[in-house]
Amino acid sequence: MSFSRVSDLQARVLNCLQTILELELELKQLTLSSSMLKDFEELKDLVARIDDLALKEEEVLRIERATAQFLEELKEPLALVASSKPPSFLQ
Predict the structure, then answer these.
(1) Rounded CA gap, 62 and 48, in Å?
(2) How many CA atoms lie within 13 A of 32 on its CB side?
(3) How far apart are CA 62 and CA 55, in angstroms?
(4) Which residues lie below 8 Å from residue 64, measured CB to CB, with a gap of 6+?
(5) What is the C-alpha to C-alpha distance for residues 72 and 63, in angstroms, rounded to an integer?
(6) Is the CB of residue 24 less than 8 Å from the CB of residue 40?
(7) Do 23 and 78 form a contact (C-beta atoms < 8 A)?
(8) Half-sphere exposure of 12 (CA within 13 A, CB side)
(9) Comparing C-alpha atoms, which of 13, 27, 42, 11 is closest to residue 73?
(10) Are 14 and 64 a contacting pair, CB within 8 Å?
(11) pLDDT in tens, the chain (91 residues)
(12) Hey, which end of the chain has fewer CB within 10 Å, N or C?
């Protein structure tokens, strides 16, 4: 496997991880369990170690599918959080 191919796979996984981590503040508003908050810390650690990962295309596809499914499942709960916030001009 070429170096550029590995870098591409790592970039795709990194994109998935960063997408989830960007939702951390909104997800905390959903009163997450302590295990879910611990999972965020593990994701942050994984982002820091992304260069050390040896990835295969099949693994990356699985991670991408899982990320898409996770985001789909969050649409409704996050919409509720967003609708309960006051307009930004009142904050």
Answers:
(1) 20
(2) 17
(3) 11
(4) 12, 16
(5) 14
(6) yes
(7) yes
(8) 21
(9) 27
(10) no
(11) 444 555 899 999 999 999 999 988 887 777 666 677 788 888 889 888 888 888 999 999 999 999 999 999 888 888 877 777 655 544 4
(12) C
Q: Please give the Cα distance from 74 to 4 (Å, whole number).
A: 33
Lookup: tokens for 57: 């295309």
Task: Name residue, tokens 């904050």.
Answer: 91
Place of tokens 């611990």: 38
Question: Amino acid identity, residue 63?
Answer: I
